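Practice problem: predict the structure.
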Amino acid sequence: MALVTAANEALLWRISNAHSRIWLASPYVSATAAKRLVETPTECERRLLSAVNEGSVRSGVLSANALLELQAGGFEVASIDNLHAKLSLVDSWGMLGSGNLTAAGLGIAGEGNVELGVELSAAQCLGAAAIFARWWRQAELVETAELERLASLPVQNPSRKGISNGPELALNGAEDLEAILAEKASAAASRNYWIKANYHRHDREDWWERGWISDHRRASYAPGDLIFLYLGARDGGPARCPVLVQVMTTIRHDPDFLLNEGDAEAVPQWPFVTETARIARVLPTTDGVELEVMGKTAQSLENGYCSITREQFEAGTKALLDRLG
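Answer:
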């Protein structure tokens, strides 16, 4: 079972490729998250279980407009007033965690709350699905007219600022980088390290959020490997490495996946797909790490990627950590 700190990378990709079901439970839902949940049309069964009440809508923690958008995108919406669970079931995959279906809860755009979840085993997915199905039978379906009424209510949206205790943790990955640098030699030797060129335009703000990379041939990435993503100088790009990701799956030849992702340009040239999860990123991208810091040049990436030693990786990681402030 894998731990998940930013659920958007684990969840949104699976939703965009769902075949049989998307079952979600969350008491709080935001408009930003709803847009991401329905941006890829699908014919599979879609259910959202929430806690739909005036108090949540008036306080701004539950967006009635978000629920309307989900309904328009094919979701059935049902309510249990004291629901507090955050559960996602997509086909045979499942995740249970602390994050709501909000931008802050999912970590959309790399920001938000400090959350922790866990991907479920196959047996746990079956058990969770049985529990969800039982909740669904007991829940009350929410009609569009009721959501429209709730959407018309004034939102107080109280501020979180004021008297508080404790710091707000930075979510840019600095702590993860520090942990990687401090790990034992045996852990460091258990993986490989890479730099991967990214062919997309440098001004695409979503490129580090999509949770996958593609190559023109079958690279030797393995789950657990760490990869610096490089944005080249083409079209005024920064010629920097602003992002570090971890490999989550073995590489596969998957043109259909690229078509479903709306990336037809990649199909003839970069048809080999590897799923990834972001470890850290620095903004703006012009603050990324230069290849020279890791002893490489743009010519090193003529094949699209190159391996680096642990020492070269540590040099890049320390530089990235410095630029995260």
